Amino acid sequence: MFFCPKCKIPLKKSSNPFGIFWYCPTCSGRAVSLQVLRKVIPQNIINKLWQRAKSGEYKSYRQCPICEKDLPEVPVINDDNSIRLDVCTKCCFVWFDGKEYESLPKREIPKPEEKEKLPLEAGKALTLLKIENMKKSERLSKGIYKDSPPGYLHHKILGYLGFPIENNSYTLKHAPIITWLIGFLMVAFTLIFIQDPDSAIKDLGLIPNQFTRFFGLTFITSFFLHAGFAHLFGNLYFLLVFGKNVEDVLDKKKYILMIITAALAGDLMYIIFTQDKSIPSVGASAGISGILTYYCLRFPDASLSVFYFIYIKWGWLRVNVKVFMLFWIVLQVLIAIHETSGTTDVSGLAHLGGAGIGFLFWAAEVVTLSKSTETHAEEFQFVQNNDK
């Protein structure tokens, strides 16, 4: 999500015949890439603007809404202060205030030539393709539909093993260092004790009726320790696939706090409600459940490819993340019911506790953004009234 450098509220995505841009609904500012501007603004103006931005001679007063780097304020045509634009030399975006974009000279856009008429059969094929794409969009809006297999072999193999395949490739603004570090510690900690996992789980796992052991240190050790390679790989997969996007949109401190509180909430659920309080618990699944829940709520238009096998029928389904989360929550509730009766060694209670924290972090963000938007809207209305 990109934020207005002036109003600090989320920018809205839009497009025109020349390309995509982002605009602020409050101040009418907009962020436009140089690639799009070259189609509209004369080449000599764009070149001069870019040279001046790269010179380092001009001061910065704002941060780029795309990459958060300082924006030098650069004069466009003359050296006076008549038109000055904020230019990001890292991501090649230009920020326009108010009517600045309209005040720039525009290139002469050649009139589109009359399109060559397609042969009858080609026209029919194109129409059928458009109809099929519309049907796919309609099916996806309902949440689930049959899909073709993933293009990569390793995705197919992971799908056959039961893992959901992420279809959306979001561009990351920051390297997911925290996610990588947690994954590394999970692997390292498990490998150290893999030769004698039973003893390690007994010594370092979280035991409900002994949760104060080692001054509560088992809350931490149980998070990084896993019961085997299959357990480790499953948690590692979900962490790396979904964690990188969540870390990218959350402040790193909030991301760490969410994982810690999700893991702690899962541990407390396990301590309070599990039937046999002498069985140790290990694994990062409670914290990762918080990540998964936040991801599904924060990226509601994302989808996952899932392989299914029912009797003699099999294939691939594309599932909206909201539908996936609904099925996942129902599954965890069923597991938790079996857990309280002592018929499973998987802690659905811990997963639900972590998922609850992920929901709370998402809800808090929605409330904060909503209040921020209302505040700026009121300020904008006050300024308009005073101008009158």
Structure, explained:
A seven-stranded antiparallel β-sheet has the order 1-2-3-7-6-5-4. It starts with 11 loop residues before the first strand and ends with a helix. Helix content is 52%, strand content 14%. By secondary structure, it is an alpha+beta fold. It is built from 13 helices and eleven strands. The radius of gyration is 27 Å and the shape is globular. The C terminus is likely disordered.
**Taking Cα atoms only, what radius of gyration do you get, to the nearest Å?**
27 Å
General shape: globular
Q: Identify the quaternary structure here.
A: single chain
The H/E string reads EEEHHEEEEHHEHEHHHHHHEEHH
Unreliable runs, pLDDT <50, ≥5 residues? 375-388
Based on DSSP secondary structure assignment, what is the total number of beta strands?
11
The level of helicity is 40-55%
Please identify the structural class as seen in this structure.
alpha+beta
The count of helical stretches stands at 13
How would you summarize the topology of this molecule?
Blueprint: E1 12-16, E2 19-23, E3 30-33, H1 34-37, H2 43-55, E4 60-63, E5 70-75, E6 84-87, E7 93-96, H3 100-103, H4 120-142, E8 144-147, H5 153-160, E9 165-166, H6 177-192, H7 197-204, H8 218-224, H9 229-249, H10 252-273, H11 285-298, E10 303-310, E11 313-320, H12 321-340, H13 348-387
Antiparallel strand pairs: 1-2, 2-3, 3-7, 4-5, 5-6, 6-7, 8-11, 9-10, 10-11
